[in-house]
Structure formats: C-alpha cells, structure tokens
Amino acid sequence: MPERAARLWRTLGAAFVLLVFVPPLLLLVAGSLTEPGLPPSPTPQLVPDPLSTTGYQRAVELGGLLRASLNSVLVAVLAVPLSVLVAALAGFALARLAPRTTTVVVAASLVALMVPATALLVPRFAIFRFLGLTDTLVPLIAPALLGTSPLYVLVYYLAFRAVPADLYDACLVADLSPLRTWWRVALPLVRPVTAGITALTFVLTWSNFLDPLIYVYDRDLFTLPLALRSLSLLDPTNFPVFLAGAVLATVPALVVFALAQRRFLRPDD
Amino acid sequence: GSGASGPDPVKLLVFGAPEELGAYRTLIEAYQDARPGERVQLIEASDRKDLLARLATSVAGGAPPDVFLMNYRFYGQFAAKGVVEPLDQRIAGSTLDPADYHPVAMDAFKWEGAQLCLPQNVSSLAVYYNRTLFTRYGVPEPKAGWTWNDLVGTATAMTRDARGLVIKGTEAEGAARLPAVHGLGVEPSIIRLAPLVWSNGGEIVDDPVKPTRLALDSPAAREALKNLIDLRQAYGVVPSDAEVEAEDDESRFLNGRLAMLMTSRRATTNFRTITGFEWDVAPMPVYRQPVGVLHSDAYCMTTGSKNKDAAWRFMEYAMSADGQRIIAATGRTVPSHIEVSRSPAFLDPDQPPRNSQVFLDAIPTVRALPTVSTWPEIEDLSYGILENAIHRGDRLDDVIRELDVKSRPMFARGEHG
Amino acid sequence: MSGLTLAGVSAAYRDATVLHEVDLAARPGELLVVLGPSGAGKSTVLRVVAGLEPATTGRVHIAGRDVTDLRPGLRNVSMVFQSYALFPHLSVAENIAFGLEVRDVPRRTARERARAAAETVGCAGLLGRRPGQLSGGERQRVALARALVREPDVFLLDEPLSNLDLTLRVEMRAELRALHDRLGATMVHVTHDQTEALVLADRIAVLRDGRVEQVGTPEQIWRTPASTFVARFVGSPAMNLLPADAAVCRTGDAPPLPEQPLEVGFRPEAVTLDAAEGTPATVDRVEVIGEDAYAYLTLAAGHRVVARVPAARRPARDESVRVGVRWADAHLFHADSGRRYVP
Amino acid sequence: MSGLTLAGVSAAYRDATVLHEVDLAARPGELLVVLGPSGAGKSTVLRVVAGLEPATTGRVHIAGRDVTDLRPGLRNVSMVFQSYALFPHLSVAENIAFGLEVRDVPRRTARERARAAAETVGCAGLLGRRPGQLSGGERQRVALARALVREPDVFLLDEPLSNLDLTLRVEMRAELRALHDRLGATMVHVTHDQTEALVLADRIAVLRDGRVEQVGTPEQIWRTPASTFVARFVGSPAMNLLPADAAVCRTGDAPPLPEQPLEVGFRPEAVTLDAAEGTPATVDRVEVIGEDAYAYLTLAAGHRVVARVPAARRPARDESVRVGVRWADAHLFHADSGRRYVP
Amino acid sequence: MLAPYLVGLVGLMLLPALVTLALAFTEYDLLRPPTWVGLDNLTALVDDPIFRVALLNSLVFAVVAVPLRVLVALGLALLLHRRAPGVGTARTATLLPTAVPEIAYGLLWLWLFNPLYGPINQLLRLGGEHGLTVLGRTPPPWLTDPTSARAGIILMSLFTMGETFVVLLAARRALPRDVYEMAALEDATGWDVFRRITLPLMAPVLALLAVRDAIASLHFTFVPAFVVTDGGPPPYATTYLSLFVYQTGFEYLRYGYAAAATLVMMLLTVAALLVQWRLIRRYRRFYQV
Ligand SMILES: Nc1ncnc2c1ncn2[C@@H]1O[C@H](COP(=O)(O)OP(=O)(O)OP(=O)(O)O)[C@@H](O)[C@H]1O
Ligand SMILES: Nc1ncnc2c1ncn2[C@@H]1O[C@H](COP(=O)(O)OP(=O)(O)OP(=O)(O)O)[C@@H](O)[C@H]1O
Ligand SMILES: [Mg+2]
Ligand SMILES: [Mg+2]
After folding, report:
1. For residue D137, what is the domain's CATH number?
2. Which spans in chain D are helix H?
3. C37/chain D closest Cα distance in angstroms
4. C196 and C172: one domain?
5. Closest ligand 2 atom to D47 CA
6. For residue E16, how many other CB atoms are within 10 A of its CB?
7. Structural domain contains residue C342
8. Contacts of E274 in chain A (CB under 8 A)
9. Are residues D71 and D168 in the same domain?
10. Do the interacting molecules here have an ipTM over 0.90?
C-alpha cells in the first residue's frame, strides 16, 4: 500500500532526525558525567569510564550554581508570566485597534526587532541607574515589559487577528469590556500560541547573558548564564564541570519546552 | 541601598577564574574582620572583556565601581580619559610608603607623572618545566643564563612520540605520528615576544614614551620574531594550531604532555593541583642580556566613585603586607610589596615551584610595555597576525609590514601618559 | 414590547457603500424576514442594528430609543451570528450563560436560566459538551439558546438555518416559528432561502444590492411582486418572464394589454399544457421531483418557458405540446424599470 | 465506454468503519447519483473509488480493470472535490491544464485543451483569473472544467452544487445533465439534496450509515422506497408514517391489511382534507410556499400528519378538518425492520 | 492594554536605540562626554578594513545561513508534518537545541568542534587510520581554519532553527489537504507536487521567515562568535558585525564608532527588508480572496 510505504519513509526520516539532533545532547550529558581532571578521551564515550558526578558537585560549589539557579528561577517566575501577559495584551490591543494605530505600532515593533542588543546596553544602563535599579534583578525582568521580544507581540497580534471576528462581535453585543473579552475569550482561544511563546520566552529569559553581565554586580544576584560563563573559563580538563553546569542549566528549559511542545503541536491529523 | 545601616559598601571590580575570585573573597573577609564596620562588595567578571564592558558601561551610566583591578597594559585607556583617580595626595597622607614596593611596578602605573593605581603584583615571564619528563628522557633541565639556542635544543630533545622517541613536530602534519609530548608551549603574542626582542637589543615600539608604530623591522626584532616563528615552522616543537585548539598549553602541561611552558606566575595556582609529576620554573632564555617583561595588575580608584575614602582604606589594606600575603597565598601573584615578596608567603619552599626566586631575580631586568590608550586593540590585532605567522608560516616581511601598517592608525588614535 | 426602525440608514465598508438609505421597520412582536441574494447587504443590516457597524447616514431606533450612537452592549439586542460565533473553549452551558455572567448575574441564577433556555430550544442534553462535539444543527440551537437566555428588545438572527441539511432545516424552521409565537418577541431573521422566508415571516423585506426592493407579507411578495427581481427571486424554478406582446395563449379572463412596453411574468404553476388552442411548443427537458414535474419548453417564437405539471401526466422529451397561461395569475412589469405595472 | 463496480467494499477512518460491504455499479455512460444524509459515507465512496482511501475489504473495478491496489494517479478517474480543491496560486487556465501538464502534454496543447474545456462549462472568460477572484458558482465551473479536460474512465463529482444558492443551483444542475448527455460519460454524482438526485440521476443509490439502502431509478426511489428511511429522506416535508392500524380514513381502493405489525407511509400529496367521511383532525399550523401550502395536522388519535393543499384552499390554523388518505399512494413497511412490505 | 508594551517599546527599545544612533555622529568613548563629529565615523567606517571584513562576513552569513536555515526547517517540516511512528519524538528533538541556553549551547559546540578530541571529528575519523577519515583526508580543523570556522558557525545556527521549524510545520499543516489529493489523482510526481504546489503555497510564510531570519541573523551570530571563536581564526574570519560592534564599543571604548556601525547595520537590514517586502507583496496578490 502506498500509504504504508510513505509512513515507513517518514519513520526513517524521523529516525534520521533523531540521529542528528539527539547525540550532541547525549554527548553533553555523557561529558558531564566524566571525571574532571582527566585528559580528554581520544574516542567519544557514550558511557564515560569512570562514571562520576564530581563534575556536578564541583559545578555547584565553584559556580555557585545553586544560588544562581534560584536567581534565574526568580527572574523567570516573575519575568515570563509578565512578559507573556504584556505580549498577549499588546497583541490583542493591536488586533482590535484602528488600523492606523496598529500600523504605526507594528512598524515600530519591526524597527525594534532590528536593534541589536549591544546598542541598548549603555542607554538602558543610564535609565536603570536613574531609576536606582542597577544591581537588582529588575533590569533582568524589565524586558518583560516589551514581551521580551517584539516578535512575540507580533505573533500574538497575528493569532488574535485570526480569531473569527464574529466572536469579538458576540462579546461586543454581550457588552463585554475589552479586558474581559481578552481574558474570557481571546486568550483561551490562542492557548497553543501562548504555550509556544511561553516556552520561547522562558528560554530567552533563562539564557539571557548580556543583560546580567552588564546590570548585575552582586555575586548573590548572578543568574545561571553568568555562573556558567565563569565555569567556562575553567581549564579544559575541568570541562566536565562546565558540561555539568550546562546540563543543569538546560534541564529546566527542556522541561518547559517539552511541556509546552505537547500543547502547541498537539492538534494532530 | 535602602535598609542598609552603614554607608554603601566599597565596590571592587575584578575578573578571574573561579579559584582566583575565591582569593579576593578571602581578602575582603580578612579586611572586614580586621576593620569592623567596613564593607566591600566584590563584583566578579569572568574575563577581561567582561570586566571592560562592565566598567565602561557603568562609568558611562554614571555608577562606576569604586575600585577596579586592571593590568597596566589596559589601564591606559582609562587613565587617558580621566576615569582613574590620582592617588599621590592620598599616598602622601597615609601609612603606605611607595618605597616598600618594587619601583618597576609602581612606575608602570604613573600617568603624566601622577601615581594613578597601586600595583598588586609584579610578575614576569618564566619557563615552567616538567622535571619528571626531563628526568625520564635524560635531558638537562634549563638553568639560569641559558640562551635561545639552548631553549630550541632542549625543546627539540623533549618533543617525543608515544614511544618516547624524539620526533619532529613538523613532519607530523597530517602524517602517521603525532608528538605525544611537545617541547615547548608559547603564545604568539606581543607580550611573549617583547622580552625576546628586548633581550636581543631590539624594540617593540619606536618610542616607549610616545609610541607611534611597532618597530619590529629592526634586525634584532626581526631575528627574535623569526626565531619564535621557527619554533613551529622549522622545528615543530610547539603544538600546531589545531592541537592548541584541541587542548590549550596550560592543560597540556597539566596533563604532562608539554615539557616546557613559557608563561607568567599566574599559572602557578593551577599547576599546584598537579600530583602526577614534579615541575619547576626556570628563567627566560637570553639573547644578549637578560630582560623580562612586566606583568602587573593594580588597584585603581575611579574618579566617579562616591565612596573614595572608604575605597582608599580598602586599597591601603589590600596593598599592606597583610593584604598582599593573602593574595600571595594563592600562588598566582608575585607580590609587589618587596618585603612580602621575599617572605615565605611567596617563597614557601613546601609549595612548588621550588625555584620561585626566579621571579624575584627577574624583577631588576623587567621592562614595561608602553601605555597607550589603544593598546588593547593593538594587542588583539597583533595576536591574530602573529598566530597566523606561527601556524600558517606567513612570510616574515609580510608579517612585519602588516603589523606595522595595520597598527599605525591605532597608535595615531592613541593617547599616551 | 418593542419595535425596531431604520430610517434612511446607509452603511459602508471602507469606501464601498453597501446599504443605501434603507428604511425598514419591525413592529413590536413581529417576525420580519430580510430576504435577498448573497451579498445583498442582509448581514450588514443586522450589524448596523446591533451597532457592530456604524451607520454613515440615518438613525436606528430600538423600542423607541434612538440607539444610533450607542455602543453594541447598550442596545439590548440578542444576535445569532451567521457563523453561530460559539466560543469553542466554553461548554454549551457556559456559552449560553455567557451573556448573563458578564452582566454579573449570580452564577447560580445564570446557570438556571441557561438550562431553561436550553430546554426551550431542545438542547438541554448537551449542556456539558463543547461546540466542537456538536453537529451543525445542535450548534444552531445552542446559538439560539444563547440569544434567548436574555430578554432583549430585539432578536437578530442571521441565516441561522443555512448550514443545515434539508430535513433538519424544515424541522428547525417550524420550531423557530413556534418559538416566536410563544415569546411574542420582535425578531429580524435574515435568509437567502425564499422557502424559509415564505414559511416563517410575518412580513418579508426583499433586499437587493443594499436597497429595499419590497416589503410585504409572504402572500403579498408571492402574489404581487413589486419588481421582476422579486418575482424571479421568489419561487423555484423562477417565474417565466416574456415580453408582454409575445405570442402566448392566455387562458381565463384576459383583459387587453395597455399600450406601453411591458413584460409579463407567470410562474410555472400558471402554465397549462393541455390548452385546446394553446401556443405550440416543444419539450426540451423534463425534471421530475416526486409528484411534480417541471417541463422546460421552447415556444414557437423561441421564448423559453417552464411549466409545472403533475408527474403522472408529464410530457415526454421532444414532445409537442400546446401551452396556455392562466392570465389571472400573470404579472405585468414595466419593461424598462422592471417595476410592477399598476393599471 | 466504461463502467464502475464496487464489490463488498468496506472502508474505515482510524478504527471507525464508515462503509460496510458496499456493492454498487455504474453502467457505462450512466449518471449514478449517490444520495444520503450528511455523514452517510458518500464522499468516502468516491474517495475509495479514486484511491484516496484504501478499501479494507472488497474490490473496485473501473472499466473492467481491478484497480483496488492501484495508486490514485493510475486509476484514470477525474474528480470534482466537495471543496473544489482548486490551486489557489494558479490561474484558472493553469488549474484546468494542471492534470495535462504533469502528464507532460506539451504546454501549447495543454492550454488549448484547457480553453476548450472552459468553453464547455462556460468559463472561458475567466482563464486569466485566480480562484480567489471567482464567485462560488464560477469556481464550481472551473473545478468541473478541470475534471473534463481529460478523458477519464469515470467522473466523480462530490456535491458539486452544494455551495450555490438556489437560483444558480437550478441552472447548473440543468447544465450538468446536458453535459452528461453530450459526453455520454460514466459519472458518479454525490449529493444530499434529494431534488438534485431526482432531477439528475439515471439511477440513485441511497446511502445510510455506510450501507446501501436502495438503488433504483428516481421513479423507483420515489414510488417504491425500499425502507422507511428512503421514504422519509426523499420528499419534503417527509412522508407521513403511522402504525398501519391507526385510525385513518382510506380513500380509493383499500384492500384489507395483512395481519402483522406494519407501518403505513404516505406523502403529504396523498392526504386530502375534504374527504366526506374522513378522520377528524385539527390544524396545528399552515406553511404557505407559493402556490402550495402544507397543513400540519393532529389526528383525533394523536398522530401527526402533514398534508399538501393548494395555497388558495388552505385551511386556517386550529380549524377542524376531515382527513383522508389516497390509499393507492400509500406504502407499507415492516414495523420492526422498516423494510418495505411486499405482499 | 497597549500601555505597558508601549512603555517597554519606547522606554527600553526605541529611546535607547535612538540615543545610540544619535551617538553615531559623535566621538564617544563611554568615559568622557561625547563630542559632535558629524559624519566622520561613517566615513571612517568606509575605510576600516576590519569593518569591511565584518560586513562581508555578516552578509555572507546572511546569504548562506538564512536560506539554509529556512530550507532545513522546511525540509524537516515537510518530513515531519504527518503522523508516523517516531515523528512526534523527532519533532521534539528538532526543538532541543533551541531549548539549550545560548552560552551553554556555544560552549557545547566549542567542545563538539574540538579538532582532536571533539565528537564530530572523532566520528569523522571512525574507520580511518592515523587520525584520518575513511577517505584518507584530514578531518576539518574547524575553528582554526577560516572556512571551516565560518562553516562551523553556520552549522551551529542551523541547529537552532526550532522556531522557524515550528512556524513552517504549522503552515504546512494548514495547507488544504484536498489540493494534494487532487494532485495525487492527476498522478503528479513528488517533485511536481513540491514545485507546483507546496512551494508556491508556502511562499508567503517562507518569505516572512526569511525576513525575520535576515533581521535576526545579524544577532544570532553574536554568541557563537563571542563564545566559540572569539572572532577568529585570525585575522577576522568570524568577526561579524555584531561582534565588531561589541568589541569596538566595549573593549576598545569607541562607542560612537560602534554606534555608527550599528546604524549601518540597521540601514542594511531596512534595505533587505524593503527588498523582501516587495517580493512578499508580489505573492500576496495571489492570496487575496
Ligand atoms: N468586512 C467587509 N469589508 C468589505 N466589504 C464587505 C465586508 N463585509 C461585507 N462586505 C461586502 O458588503 C456587501 C454586503 O455584505 P453582507 O455580508 O451584508 O451580505 P449578505 O447579504 O449578508 O450576504 P450573504 O448572504 O452571503 O451572507 C457584499 O458585497 C460584501 O462583499
Ligand atoms: N478524515 C476522517 N477521519 C475520521 N472520520 C472521518 C473522516 N472523514 C469522514 N469521517 C467520518 O466518516 C463518516 C462518513 O464521512 P463522509 O465524508 O463520507 O460523509 P458524507 O456522506 O460525504 O457527508 P457530507 O454530506 O457531510 O459530505 C462520517 O461519520 C465522518 O464523521
Ligand atoms: Mg450574511
Ligand atoms: Mg461529503
């Protein structure tokens, strides 16, 4: 049967994809379980010999990973929902506002998308200092105000625009306020988008490296990427320590992604 | 800073690997114990680039740290721009006596006659070597007064394959046998090249006070440069670029697969973790006369600091014998405090390298690189060109010309002290 | 009890005017059907009434209030959207109670009234499901229940039966009429299905290209269409339309034709094939639909005419027949304007 | 010339079987209409024939070839999809020529044949447009032209008229029939519109829940429905269905009923309201549709019955009438199985 | 509802960006107050060999990596858009690299690319002898050779096309199924279907993603170049505009000059955007209903 053959091909393709995408991460895990301080092995080892969790212990001690994780979690817990909220609200407003306003804001967002992060560091620093917010976690949470990336606002905008206009009209007839329309009707309808954006926002926030580098002084406020960065300066024989740190930093992002992924790719065939 | 009882803590910006940062934390704790009520906050950058970005941004943003630690090669751009507070008056009114410190280090941080920063250390280049390996292969260890030719000879004799036979690293390019042990590790940078050029009677720049160009085209400089390049191109005693990329020299030495490594005192901390073999340091090889190159970092106070008195008090402590001892305990510095540098805090015979005296002996011959505000750019530029010269074997004339042509605009833009 | 008036209402999308000074009134308690082909502006009429589109000219009155400048929520209308506009993420019960909950009716009361409304339209058994789990007919009932749960001044129903298959449509249109009679509410019902209009309406407004072509009872629309457009749009197959002076045999009482360019229209039902001295014609094609058959004929003069005959007595294809037209059931229109000729 | 046979064909989506051992044959040159309610499996029949869904059991023959295991491209069928499936990015001309071009017919020839096909269905004026710029009716013609441009063994048409409004539908269905007669091709036409089926078909296959309920000419389907399902599905309003022993006045020749549980069915057309000694009934409701009116009645015994009467002589609501049934037009069904009772 | 976003957009993005762009016309070292120099920075950029190299690198990256990323994502989306055993897992796997924090991702690759001990080259050497591949050639030295280093950075960026993949997957799944069945009936070959149906139908989405990627390509070269190659191998094989801006601005304290480079970079993006916009417009015509 042709369909069965096609499925077989797709499965083979999927296997190939797995073969390409999974090994680096397996190697990452394997590498993190290698005993630090040993010369690098001349062949790839999926199961390191000797198996050792020293890397993890050292990573936690040296990098202050525990403290850094707490900070990262704190930032993520505050920034991600706020960011998604802001993006969703703004996207909804764009979808419902007069086309002229929308055009202006969309254009401004596109321009903002082009601004390289490096161009923002110094002026932003001045702003945060003016507000007395340097050396706090606030500058790391602040990007949530623009939905972390204007792209996500635009994605929400497209999603809300795709909701049948009749549903919004039904809300108008029922005399729903815009805010309630957003909360009761629009947001639940774009749940897959929210799942996807939450995951991507989380990853962006979680791996934000440049911002903490500039705005955070206090070691007690370091986030994971900063801690990882200092681990990355260890000499190569201590690479397992860094890899352990990388694994620890990746796992939460993976979990969030896997959870969200099931939502935004589910409605299947 | 709401809720904090005392004044704001002194902010100290440093960079380093995790172990080094630990030493600064110890220093701060000791200071806070010794002076109750004083508070110092350590701002950790992971490397020099991080530190620069942080420092510049915070100065531009109007909230600079109070004290930062900076190498003299890089402090020029800050000194030239009035970011660093002159300290002469404070020194005059304090217990700190400039005469207690190695003058070469103190001088390196004078800008237009004013003392801008206080040097924490006075290190220089030395040759670390794996004594166990030397013993195994029966090659004589390097000793004071050895020449460049001795170095090349020793390195050649120490470049061995897996069976322990002498091998020429150049033949090994893409061939069956790769050296298991390389004779020497050296970075292709100006700071490694400088003492060799000087020793041969050449100069790095045309005018050490107001440099306008690199002066590597003199015969003496040319020879030193050519010899450096030949280490790879002619003798193959230093690892190839791919090998360096795969495993840098320091870990190669740590793993016992590098016989000698030309580096500063800084590596000591890391090497003290070595358990598998015995190692020591030797002085740099000599062309005509012994010359060293200064490696020194200093505590600098920012002009924008809002907390200068407290910052000064911390600097005083850090520079004091007590403070210097704490940092010296890490092994990574040669204390700038003369007395401390001669004390067991530095020369402790129980801690390798046994021959730490090498660093002290070098101090009288040490020279500083010029301080130009654009020096970081020049170093980055020359590093790239030199790396290609060593590993790709570019023509010597081209290398020298390229270095000169490309660095000239940088010198032109630079400001001098 | 409360009526609805549109006075000189125009409406436009972007620059295209789609309603041209529409005057329309639904009396209190009346079921007004707005009938017209696709794109005539039927939905737009409802949207203007609901306040979802602004009127560019004219005023809208609901229950005596001028609501032209009021926002939709304040006009006190219920609407069934052409697409139903059910909230896919809410259960049937939540969908129905939606309009109440946002008006801060207590949850318990809202649920009870939702249940009552669901019972009225016969979908009480579906309260726990989501719209995605319903068939088209069931969705339509839920949309209706959502409109009924409140007591608005006017119900606006936009082609609520168009997506159903015939059997279901027949059933639902009976229910809808019964509901209207029970509630006594003012309803505006939009459709392009003439059968639906004829069956349901108290009065029908025929819309064409954003203009009201005729308003009247189903009887009036059928018996005295105001224009050739109305005449041909209502009835299937469409009314035959010939030049009045075409050679056809008129049966029954046939007064002389006035002396001006006219067209004559007569429905297939008004054509007889067994007229003794009828006009000769040939049968092109015969369609049998159950008991009825439609014969498609070409008259001797070349005009094409459709006739309805009992299926049992239908002519064969290519047969020659003699055609007569019951003149009492014929309509006269001005040939130029298409308006009805009134002697 | 080439026919089509399905022998014991079953089909399933996931685990749900939607066709159960369907036997169906279209003779060469025949227009077979597959009629059934929504969800009966009509489209699935076409999809199995086209090879878009596999048959889980049974064989499909086209033009005498067993094509059951052939891929769609090799079966030599043309299909008009329920949704038209026009390529939105291709012009009308490119859409029509697609099937030729992928078969490597030279570009010029392909274009010419596309133009010819477009002329056949009367859309030659649209060749340069894209589907997005066409009305529903025009799209349908393009889809048809695309099917006609080749000379397949069988044409498969899936509800090609369902999206059109009544006027257009009547027009197109005449054109379709004319086309079939001209081409003499084998066609399978799927619809849920009984009128369309009755008008178009050479033979009708009534499908219900994936089973063939009856196959026959329109006349047979109408006159001798094989089951209560066919009887009620064909005709609108649906056939009245009562227990055979219900008290109704039978007019005309009325033989005695056999002694077994039966149901009697009679269409609204078979009910007379002026029977002298008819069963008493009250009028619940009257629907007037042009010249005809349908009276919804409740018999004295409580049974509900619909009657068709001329609009001019319709009873009033709540009026009492006397109902008779022309027994010659009545049908008997087994009460348990619903199958037609054959004495 | 728009307010928080507008505050963020203007306060944290547009205003700072404007300040920086204004600084493009000054000499500013971050330490002393800026001084107005007019177009000097821009003219200096024209003569700056490093800038030219960085610009070229960025353009080459954009020209090679952007289409490759979109193509790979498209290929995967087409491969994985329908159910089959293993497809769900493969979809998740495709998203994995996107989930790894950038810095960890960069350093992971640093390790993967290690010319002697890195898993990639070890894999390439499998079956070969004496450190050669089976074909008897030396495996790529990756980060020490300009070409392979550039290729390496492109390779890295290919693995993080998760976002693009998700969007394309959704777009492909939204395509009408009947159109494909129609093509099957006409016995169109797989190539015909791809060329005549899938590609034109997905063109608008593809174009949009290309625009986004082109904009983003200037940014997602930063971390790899910063963490993995440090702009090398010498002299400036992987010095992209983003790294150039960072280095000149923050390491060499020539912020005004860096701002001028930023300005050029944004102008180029706008130009690219306009070109692509015209292309999209041409396509959009087809889809208006
Ligand atoms: N949002 C819109 N923008 C522009 N034109 C519109 C819009 N909505 C409707 N139109 C146009 O306005 C005219 C009237 O539309 P309307 O929806 O009122 O028609 P309708 O009578 O309800 O038709 P249907 O029976 O198809 O629902 C049509 O020509 C239509 O193309
Ligand atoms: N892709 C599918 N997956 C699962 N079930 C399906 C699918 N397509 C159709 N069905 C189910 O199969 C049955 C028959 O579907 P089919 O499309 O053949 O009906 P139909 O007679 O063509 O109806 P309609 O008149 O609505 O087009 C229905 O119950 C339907 O829900
Ligand atoms: Mg409408
Ligand atoms: Mg169907």
Report:
1. 3.40.50.300
2. 42-50, 92-101, 107-121, 136-148, 166-183, 194-200, 218-223, 228-233
3. 8
4. yes
5. 18
6. 21
7. no
8. none
9. yes
10. no
Q: What is the DSSP string of C230-276?
A: HHHHSSSSPPEEEETTS--EEESS-PPPPSS-EEEEE-GGGEESB-T
Compute CA distances E111 → A3, A24, A41, A236, D12, whole Å. Answer: 42, 10, 12, 9, 52
Are residues E240 and E218 in contact, defined by beta-carbon separation less than 8 angstroms? yes
- What pLDDT score does E247 carry? 85
DSSP label at residue C314: P
Percent composition of chain E: helix, strand, coil (DSSP 3-state, to 5): 75, 0, 25
Residue B202 vs residues B151, B294, C225, E150: alpha-carbon distances, Å: 19, 17, 113, 38
Q: Which of residues 139-198 of D touch E (CB under 8 A)?
A: none
Segment-wise mean pLDDT, segments of 10 residues, chain A, 269 residues: 74 89 82 74 65 81 80 92 94 91 89 82 84 86 88 85 85 89 90 83 85 80 83 72 84 81 57
Angstrom distance (rounded) from CA B195 to CA B224: 9
Chain B residues in contact with E118 by the CB 8 A cut-off are 246
At C288, which CATH number? 2.40.50.140
Specify if D343 maps to a domain.
no
Q: With contacts defined as CB-CB under 8 Å, which chain B residues touch E116?
A: 242-243, 246-247
- Based on the domain organization, do C221 and C275 belong to the same domain? no
Distance in Å, alpha carbon of D173 to nearest chain C alpha carbon? 10
d(CA A47, CA A40): 14
Domains and CATH numbers, chain A: 1-62+234-250 (no CATH), 64-225 (1.10.3720.10)
**Widest CA span in chain A:** 72
Classified as helix, coil or strand, E126 is coil
| Pair of tokens at residue C167 | 């059997």
**Under 8 Å between Cβ of B195 and B292:** yes
pLDDT tens digits, E3-40? 889 999 998 889 999 988 898 898 888 888 888 888 88
Domain hosting residue C298, numbered range: 240-334
Q: Where are the domains of chain E?
A: 28-287
Task: Give the end of a domain, one of D166, D199, D233.
Answer: D233
Q: Give, for ligand 1, the residue of C19, C33, C43, C163 to mutate: max count of ligand atoms closer than 8 Å to Cβ.
A: C43
The model's pTM is 0.82
Tokens of E17: 């960006």
CA–CA gap between residue D102 and residue D106 (Å, rounded): 10
C83-91 mean pLDDT: 88
Cis peptide leading into residue A116 (ω within 30°): no
Q: What is the largest CA-CA distance in chain E?
A: 73
Amino acid at E268: L
Provide the number of structural domains found in chain D: 2
pLDDT digits (tens, 9 = 90+) for A8-42: 888 898 899 888 888 878 878 888 888 876 665 65
Whether residue C215 is found in the same domain as residue C275:
no
- E208: left (phi > 0), else alpha (psi -120 to 50), else beta? alpha
The end-to-end CA distance of chain B, in Å, is 37
Residue C343 lies in a domain: no
- Sign of torsion over alpha carbons B236, B237, B238, B239: positive
The CATH code of domain E28-287 reads 1.10.3720.10
Residue D123 lies in a domain: yes
In this structure, the answer to whether residues D224 and D250 fall within a common structural domain is no
- Longest Cα separation, chain B: 69
CA of C91 to the centre of ligand 3 (A): 26
Pocket flag, ligand 2, residue D44 (CB < 6 Å):
yes
Query: Distance (Å, rounded) from C-alpha D257 to C-alpha D259?
Result: 6
Domain edge (last residue) among D233, D259, D288: D233
| Residue range C113-131, pLDDT digits in tens | 999 999 888 888 889 988 8
DSSP A10-39: HHHHHHHHHHHHHHHHHHHHHHHTBPTTSP
Both C195 and C251 in a single domain?
no
Q: C206 and C295, same structural domain? A: no
Residue A15 and residue E107: Cβ atoms within 8 Å? no
